């Protein structure tokens, strides 16, 4: 065959081969797409988008734009005394070592003329709590979307919305987040010495975030580990945090700041009758439960009754796995312990039990979230296991209904958020304005015949602030003369007193 024809034939054959190969490559691509784990991609997407959405929402609607209330107690510590001493001193029964270092950085590095770092940490603590709760719920058998939405309900908990507004709540949020991180590790398949040490380290870290919430979380962890782990390894996981908790409560001399005075004393309780404490505790318990279904007292009582009944049915039918049983028992005990501790130490803080209970329905509602978190961990996996359908299609329908219900609960609970935000927005503005006026007075100095009353508490909206504290902040450069503004006569007279 002539060379030209031979070349043409080869080209024609190659072209024909290319055309026949294209469908095969297209078919290969379709086969790869069919084999691709799209369910895994969807789950990863949910684990990213839902927490990011929550963080974006809270971060862009921050209400507390300046330190208020007990923020100033930690700020005071960050400017006085040895850090080794100050980070281990309790306040009203809380060990806030993490908060101490966060406020230390804010005061001594970033200053107090702006306030962005602490709100950022608050947002981070909420994301950590959301992921921790969702991870445990997922490991206990809930579908990913249900676990994340349930965690969203109790993290951004409308009836207890102070914990996502008041920036000092960051320690408690991190304490709960670490508790559930330890529980997540404990629920894994690896039960060895190294894993036990990891669980112990996380539990000890939770103590330094907020000892009050960590102790309830540790009770939950005790039940989980002792029920699911070999006894020898359980000791490795639980003894170090148990010793740390015991040492803290044995050696603690918490500062109690009330009515303008600060005392070093062991007692961090505010006196109330036994009946008053029981009433206050029950009010917290039912409101926490009610918030899980978008209601309050009556809804909480109904939910608790239904949840207990369904869990008992699941136990009788042997539909609850060992981890779910451990979570049911541990979560219930932790919720009761959290409420009992709060009621015992705080019921007498207000002038009457009726005022204390009414405060739970107002902006000062931060005592509701801990019980709600543990009740969610206790009963939602148990109820899901008790009623889980065997058919896949029915399971998908139930998952869709549960997801829609949780979204509705979250939306309904938002009605409780606005009053808290309005309160903290107003407080932030008032305190910042008064601090700026006080700075102007202190930097300019008092008139002849007057002196700075360093022990005076000139700012009514945050009586924790003393003139001496503001003077130290100015000396450290955390507040400057440029930050000041002309002072009202009434505030000036509270700072400058006749000699």
Q: What key phrases describe this protein's structure?
A:
499 residues; mainly alpha; 2 domains; two-stranded antiparallel ribbon; 4 strands; 3% strand
- Amount of beta strand: under 5%
SSE succession: HHHHHHHHHHHEEHHHHHHHEHHE
Widest sheet, order of strands: 1-2
Poorly predicted ranges = 1-23, 258-268
What integer value in Å does the Rg equal? Answer: 28 Å
Tell me the number of strands: 4
Broad structural category: mainly alpha
What is the general shape?
elongated
State the end-to-end distance.
Answer: 122 Å
Our count of helices gives 20
Measured as a percent range, the helix fraction is 55-70%
Major sheet details: 2 strands, antiparallel
Number of domains: 2
Mean pLDDT across all residues, rounded? 88
């Amino acid at each position: 065959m002539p060379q030209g024809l031979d070349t043409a034939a080869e080209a024609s054959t190659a072209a024909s081969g290319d055309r026949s190969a294209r469908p095969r490559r297209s078919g290969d691509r379709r086969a790869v797409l069919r084999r691709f784990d799209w369910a895994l991609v969807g789950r990863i997407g949910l684990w990213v988008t839902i927490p990011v959405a929550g963080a974006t929402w809270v971060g862009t609607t921050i209400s507390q734009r300046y330190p208020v209330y007990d923020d100033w107690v930690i700020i005071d510590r960050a400017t006085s005394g040895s850090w080794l001493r100050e980070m281990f001193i309790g306040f009203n029964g809380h060990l806030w070592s993490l908060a101490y270092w966060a406020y230390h950085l804010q005061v001594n590095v970033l200053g107090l003329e702006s306030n962005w770092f602490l709100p950022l940490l608050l947002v981070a603590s909420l994301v950590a709590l959301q992921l921790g709760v969702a991870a445990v719920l997922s490991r206990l058998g809930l579908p990913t979307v249900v676990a994340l939405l349930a965690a969203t309900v109790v993290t951004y908990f409308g009836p207890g919305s102070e914990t996502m507004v008041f920036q000092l709540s960051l320690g408690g949020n991190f304490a709960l987040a670490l508790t559930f991180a330890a529980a997540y590790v404990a629920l894994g398949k690896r039960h060895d010495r190294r894993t036990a040490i990891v669980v112990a380290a996380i539990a000890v870290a939770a103590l330094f975030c907020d000892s009050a919430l960590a102790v309830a979380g540790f009770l939950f962890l005790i039940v989980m580990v002792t029920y699911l782990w070999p006894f020898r390894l359980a000791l490795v996981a639980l003894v170090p945090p148990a010793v740390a908790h015991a040492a803290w409560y044995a050696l603690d001399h918490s500062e109690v700041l009330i009515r303008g005075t600060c005392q070093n004393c062991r007692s961090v309780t505010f006196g109330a009758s036994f009946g008053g404490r029981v009433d206050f505790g029950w009010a917290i318990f039912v409101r926490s439960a009610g918030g899980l279904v978008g209601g309050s007292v009556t809804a909480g009582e109904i939910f608790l009754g239904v949840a207990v009944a369904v869990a008992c049915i699941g136990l009788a039918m042997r539909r609850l796995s060992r981890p779910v049983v451990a979570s049911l028992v541990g979560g219930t005990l932790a919720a009761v312990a959290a409420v009992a501790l709060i009621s015992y130490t705080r019921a007498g803080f207000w002038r009457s039990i009726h005022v204390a209970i009414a405060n739970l329905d107002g902006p000062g509602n931060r005592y509701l979230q801990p019980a709600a978190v543990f009740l969610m961990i206790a009963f939602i996996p148990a109820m899901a296991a008790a009623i889980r359908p065997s058919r896949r299609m029915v399971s998908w329908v139930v998952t869709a209904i549960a997801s829609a219900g949780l979204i509705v609960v979250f939306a309904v609970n938002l009605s409780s958020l606005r009053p808290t935000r309005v309160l903290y927005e107003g407080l932030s503005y008032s305190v910042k304005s008064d601090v700026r006026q006080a700075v102007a007075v202190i930097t300019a100095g008092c008139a002849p015949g007057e002196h700075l009353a360093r022990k005076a508490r000139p700012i009514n909206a945050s009586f924790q602030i003393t003139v001496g504290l503001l003077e130290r902040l100015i000396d450290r450069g955390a507040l400057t003369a440029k930050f000041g503004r002309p002072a009202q006569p009434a505030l000036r007279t509270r700072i400058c007193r006749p000699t």
